[in-house]
Amino acid sequence: MDYSIFAVAIFLIAVLVFGGVFLIRPRRPGVTDEKPSAEVTDATTAEAGTAVAEPEEREEPAGAPATATAEAPPVEAPAAPELETPPPSAGRLVRLRARLARSQSTFGQGLLSLLSADKLDDDAWDEIEDTLITADVGVTAASQIVDNLRTKVKVQGGRTPEEVRGMLREELIAQIDPRLDRAVRTDPHGDRPAVLMIVGVNGTGKTTTTGKLGRVLVGDGRSVVLGAADTFRAAAADQLETWGSRVGAPVVRKDEGADPASVAFDAVARGMDEGADTVIIDTAGRLHTKTGLMDELGKVKRVVEKKSQVDEVLLVLDATTGQNGLRQARVFAEAVNITGIVLTKLDGTAKGGIIIQVQRELGVPVKLVGLGEGPDDLAPFDAEAFVDAILGED
Predict the structure, then answer these.
(1) Domain SRP54-type proteins GTP-binding, which positions (predicted)?
(2) Following DSSP, what letter does each residue of 379-392 receive, concatenated?
(3) Is 69 annotated as belonging to a binding site?
(4) CA 255, 309, 197, 336: dihedral to nearest 10 degrees?
């Protein structure tokens, strides 16, 4: 037997057994000895990059510009300010009567006290006359009132408080003249609006009166256009725009220094275009000593009349200025046809007698009175309500 062949066979079997153990040993999951190919590596990297680059969903900050994937919500325009609803003109003076009574108590109560004295001799009547003159009634009117009262006292005899009050009330109403037409003409003429010009010197409250009058008319259901023809003061136009914006009344204005007549003309034209009922034109505060400025006021009126008639020229007077205010009124009356008086600041003075004097001097009625600084403190003037207020009538 050949043992060498047998030994070789055993050796070969041993090599095969041990080699097979290493070749078929188990591998850990996910582990490979092979290197990934370049294609697999590039694809995996690309997928990973895409995943990283993909942005997360998030809310855009408010006000950010819209992107291609999401539209920004539309921006709403700011709401227009709510317009005020002024009270109507009817009953305004009655509502403000308590304020008027406080301001005029010195005038009315002083007269009642003097007339109720036990003895009415010449000295007493002189004192009554002085009280009337001090209240700006005027010398002529004061003398006439005293003469009429003396006659009534002699005829009637008795002088109870009720009788004295009745006599004085009757005389004051007669002097104020309730027969005068105090209506402010604001009715349009077909397709043309009524045109009102507001005139007066600086400081009397012209622009404020223009704004308040616009409120009165809006409260009465009228449509109004305001003309800022005081081009010497930009603040005047700004102030008028504030008044107009509260009640929805448009304001026509131009740059400071522009021709006032052109502003007035354009205001009337706009009123006609918009079908407005009334156009109110605020003019510059004319110094009554300046002839050139007074001539310019006449020019404004003439230019406006090429477009439409001027229905009212209202002169604004400060009730506290007394005789100086009366001199102003005379100069304005010479420059332009005044149709009515607006007496402002009547709440701050005991000199309500200026109403009697200015009407006698100019022959035109007081149509409106200002009784405070509030937006609705402008009221149509009523002779009986005025006298009742200063005499403390209920």
Answers:
(1) 365-378
(2) EE--HHHHHHHHTT
(3) no
(4) 110
Q: Is 169 within any annotated ligand binding site?
A: no
Higher-confidence residue of 213 and 1: namely 213
**345 marked as part of a ligand binding site:** yes
- pLDDT at residue 159 in the model: 78
**205 among annotated binding-site residues:** yes
The encoded tokens of residue 107 equal 């005038």
Domain ranges of the chain: 194-338
Query: Do the annotations mark residue 201 as ligand-binding?
Result: yes
| Assigned token pair, 160 | 């109870």
Question: For the residues of 225-284, what is the DSSP string, one character each?
Answer: EEEEE-TT-HHHHHHHHHHHHHHT--EE---TT--HHHHHHHHHHHHHHTT-SEEEEEEP
pTM of the entire predicted model:
0.77
Classify domain 194-338 by CATH number. 3.40.50.300
- Residue 271, annotated as binding a ligand: no
* pLDDT tens, position by position, 341-391: 999 988 777 678 889 989 988 899 999 999 888 899 999 999 998 888 888
Annotated binding residue at 286?
Answer: yes
Q: In this structure, are residues 194 and 188 in contact, taking their beta carbons and an 8 Å threshold?
A: yes
Query: Which of these, 271, 273, 233, 278, lies nearest to 252 by C-alpha position?
Result: 271
Q: If DSSP codes are grouped into helix, strand and coil, which group holds residue 16?
A: helix
Q: Is 285 annotated as a binding residue?
A: yes
Residue 44's CB: how many other CB atoms inside 10 A?
11
119 is annotated as contributing to ligand binding: no
Give buried/exposed letters for 373-388 (b at 16+ CB in 10 A, else e). eeebbbbbbbbebbbb
Backbone angles phi and psi of 2, in degrees to 5: -95, 105
Helix, strand or coil for residue 197? strand
**pLDDT tens, position by position, 171-196:** 999 999 999 999 999 999 999 999 99
Residue 207 is labelled as binding a ligand: yes
